[in-house]
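Quick check before the chapter quiz. The format below is the same one you will see on the exam, so make sure you can read both the input and the output lines.
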Amino acid sequence: MSKLCSDETPKKQSEVTSFFTAPLKSERITQAIADMIVSNYVPLSIVEGEGLKNLMSIVAPYYTVLCRKTVRSCIQRRNDVEREALMSQFENVSSVSIDHYGYLDLQLYREFHHRH
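Here is the expected output.
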């Protein structure tokens, strides 16, 4: 069996190391889940589903999947930070032009694939 598919249990050293890095890693995992929800348009209810809980029990057994409300707060905080960064970039700009062609191309793509 390849290393990527191995069922071997981790050595004690990795368990001790993970104890000290767990809070930082937990925050990164939570943010990665929130980012996945936003970027893939996945409903927040995924965090309460057995599929994600099972996946996380395998890839990060010491991580506890957070509730929907907590993940929503994480998404909102990230949104607030990114909005502030964007607003500060446009602080001294007198006018903005928004190109709508990207939306039209996506719409045409969806229509084309829907018909075929």
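If your answer matched, good. Residues 1-13 have pLDDT under 50 and may be disordered.
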